[in-house]
Write a structure and sequence with these properties.
Blueprint (H helix, E strand, L loop, with lengths): L2 E6 L19 E6 L5 H5 L5 H12 L7 E5 L1 H13 L5 E5 L9 H11 L4 E4 L2 H11 L6 E3 L22 E4 L6 H9 L6 E5 L13 E5 L3 H9 L4 E3 L10 H9 L4 E4 L14 E4 L4 H13 L4 H15 L2 H14 L3
Parallel strand pairs: 1-2, 1-3, 3-4, 4-5, 5-6, 7-8, 8-9, 10-11, 11-12
Helix pairs in contact: 2-3, 3-4, 6-9, 8-10
Length: 335
């Protein structure tokens, strides 16, 4: 039977991608994760030995020319392509979740540009990224497809709620965020409460006023409970070209939360000011403050924003959309 070999940069032991929703040509599924799985891989973090181990194992798993590979995140896609070439494997290869917070330096760019030429298709999470990566890595534009980030409604653990202030705004996540601007804006609004959930490096060196409450490295269910119980989600991205925040946006939408986001080409496929919330110019403290104050002046809009976001996520951000795409990729190789 045809095999679908998944190799992922980050994957929990029970992760099975879209297998539960797949309804296409009969296949068997195989999963390989770059997460450290032994003492050596946990001790040596650079280079990431687990990535080499996972990509090598995935390549050796390919037994028939009909088998396909799906790699997840670009560095894994790069090394998967390298190992397949070294082992003489020419199977069809789909690079899923092809997203960079920061583009690579010149040396790695050259290596990736070469390895990416052997990949058959790429999935990105915004239309902006199609042109960005096509130009940067010389990938033919027709090889890059855009799908919305997909997820079900997050599981929430409300045991953390008793620790939180009342009527707070929240901002969560760690990639491509501009917490400095956000915190400075809330320092000018001492009557409003803000809860931030992120990793320590994202707020390093930033002083917190008394109305800003910080939590680091919360379990996922408590993380999403902070979002679910907030007045609205704030998404302050680093600049107008930052292609991050998709997981946060979709999770908040699934929970029916209003959104206040900085403008970014990387998120316009999910959020447009006036539909699911309000927008502001990136790095602009005054604009951010004005957006929050406008929100406070008309709280009657919260339900409308939340309802729009929930409906959008149910239509565009469902895992079944991913399943249909992957089914098409698998079955295209059989014709």
């Amino acid at each position: 039977m045809q095999r679908v070999i998944n190799v992922a940069e980050l994957a929990k032991p029970d992760w099975n991608f879209i297998e539960d929703h797949y309804q296409g040509h009969p296949v068997t599924w195989s999963y390989h994760s770059a997460n450290p799985c032994n003492v050596l891989e946990r001790l040596i973090t650079r280079p990431k030995i687990g990535r080499y181990r996972a990509c090598a194992a995935a390549s050796l798993k390919l037994k028939s020319e009909r088998d396909v590979v799906i790699s997840h995140l670009p560095r894994t896609s790069h090394w998967q392509s390298v190992f397949m070439k070294k082992l003489g494997k020419e199977n069809r290869h789909l690079a899923f979740s092809f997203n960079f917070t920061d583009l690579p330096d010149a040396k790695l760019r050259a290596k990736m540009t070469e390895s990416f030429q052997t990949i058959d298709a790429f999935v990105v999470y915004s239309e902006y990224e199609k042109k960005l990566y096509s130009d940067f890595f010389s990938i033919p534009r027709e090889k890059i497809d855009m799908l919305h980030w997909a997820a079900g409604e997050p599981v929430c653990d409300d045991t953390i709620v008793s620790q939180l202030p009342k009527n707070y705004y929240c901002s969560v996540g760690g990639e491509g965020r501009d917490y400095r601007t956000l915190i400075k804006a809330f320092a000018k609004m001492p009557n409003l409460q803000l809860v931030i959930v992120t990793r320590p490096h994202a707020i390093e060196g930033i002083s917190l006023p008394s109305n800003v409450h910080l939590y680091c490295n919360l379990p996922s269910s408590q993380y999403w409970s902070v979002v679910a119980n907030s007045r609205a989600l704030l998404l302050p991205l680093r600049d107008q070209d930052t292609p991050c925040g998709h997981i946060t946006l979709v999770g908040a939408m699934r929970l029916g939360k209003p959104i206040i986001s900085s403008f970014s080409q990387g998120t316009t496929d999910y959020f447009k000011p006036g539909e699911g919330g309000l927008g502001f110019e990136a790095k602009n403290i005054s604009a951010l403050k004005q957006a929050v104050e406008a929100f406070e002046d008309d709280l009657s809009e919260l339900d409308r924003y939340g309802d729009f976001n929930r409906a959008f996520a149910r239509t565009h951000c469902d895992v079944k959309v991913w399943s249909r795409y992957v089914q098409g990729f698998i079955e295209a190789g059989l014709s």
